[in-house]
Design a protein that fits this description.
Length: 240
C-alpha cells in the first residue's frame, strides 16, 4: 500500500477513532499517524465535538430504532490522548498565526516608512538633492518688519517676507487703514524700482490680512509700502 493509500485509509477511520469503535491495532496505527499528519489532526479537531453532540441528542442510544449507540467513555483512544493531539495542533496554529502577524507588522512598517518618505518628498517639492538628509537642507530665514505710519495716517502692522526661488512671498497683517480702497502693497527694490505685490478692497474696520508676492529677491528688497487707490502712502516697512 502506498503512503497516499495508507493516509486515505487512516483518514476514514477518524470517526470510529473518536467514538471508540476501532480495535486496538487500528487505534495504535492511527495514534502513530496523527503525530505526523497535520491534515488528519485538523480533521480530528473538526470532528471532536461529535461524540458529545450525539450523547445529547434525544434517544441518542436508540437512533433509528436500531441497536444502542456505542459511545463508550472508557473506549480507546482516551480523552487525554485526543486532547494531547489537539493541544499540539492548536499550538502549531498559534505559532503559525504569531509568525504571520509578525510578518504582517513588518510589511506594514515598510509601507509606513515608504509613505513617510513620499510625503517628505511632496512637502519639499521633490527637490531634496540625492544623498542629502533633511537636517543638511538649508533653513528658510524669514524677514519680519514693522510698518511706520505716514504723516496723517494711523496704519500699524507687520510684513513677513519669505525667500523663494522665484522671488519673495509676503504676508501682511495691518490695521487702522484710512483712505479709499482698493489698497495696494508695493515692494521697493534697493535700485529704486517698485512692484505691486498685493491688492485688496475696503474692509470696513480698517484691518486686513493679505498674502502677496514679488519677483524681487529678498536681498534686493528695500521696503514694503501700503498705499490707497490714489497712491497716497499710508505706511512703510523698511527691510534691512
Amino acid at each position: 500500500m502506498s503512503d497516499l493509500e495508507e493516509h486515505d485509509a487512516l483518514h476514514r477511520l477518524l470517526g470510529g477513532y473518536l467514538l471508540g469503535g476501532l480495535d486496538e491495532a487500528d487505534t495504535d496505527r492511527l495514534d502513530e499517524h496523527l503525530h505526523d499528519c497535520a491534515d488528519c489532526r485538523a480533521e480530528l479537531d473538526r470532528l471532536a465535538p461529535v461524540p458529545e453532540m450525539l450523547q445529547r441528542l434525544p434517544d441518542a442510544r436508540h437512533l433509528g430504532g436500531g441497536a444502542p449507540l456505542a459511545v463508550s467513555p472508557t473506549a480507546r483512544p482516551t480523552q487525554q490522548n485526543i486532547e494531547g493531539l489537539l493541544s499540539r495542533m492548536r499550538a502549531e496554529k498559534t505559532k503559525e498565526t504569531r509568525v504571520n502577524r509578525v510578518r504582517w507588522l513588518a510589511a506594514a512598517a515598510v509601507v509606513m516608512i515608504a509613505a513617510a518618505a513620499i510625503g517628505y518628498g511632496i512637502f519639499t517639492n521633490g527637490r531634496v538633492p540625492q544623498g542629502t538628509t533633511p537636517e543638511a537642507l538649508p533653513s528658510v530665514e524669514l524677514v519680519t518688519t514693522q510698518f511706520e505710519s505716514a504723516p496723517g495716517s494711523g496704519l500699524t502692522g507687520s510684513a513677513v517676507l519669505t525667500p523663494k526661488e522665484w522671488g519673495v512671498a509676503i504676508a501682511l497683517d495691518v490695521s487702522r487703514m484710512s483712505g479709499n480702497g482698493p489698497f495696494l502693497c508695493l515692494m521697493r527694490s534697493k535700485g529704486g524700482g517698485t512692484e505691486q505685490s498685493a491688492v485688496w478692497g475696503d474692509t470696513g474696520n480698517g484691518s486686513a490680512k493679505v498674502n502677496g508676492a514679488s519677483s524681487f529677491k529678498i536681498g534686493d528688497v528695500d521696503a514694503v509700502l501700503i498705499t490707497d487707490r490714489d497712491g497716497k502712502v499710508l505706511g512703510t516697512a523698511s527691510v534691512t
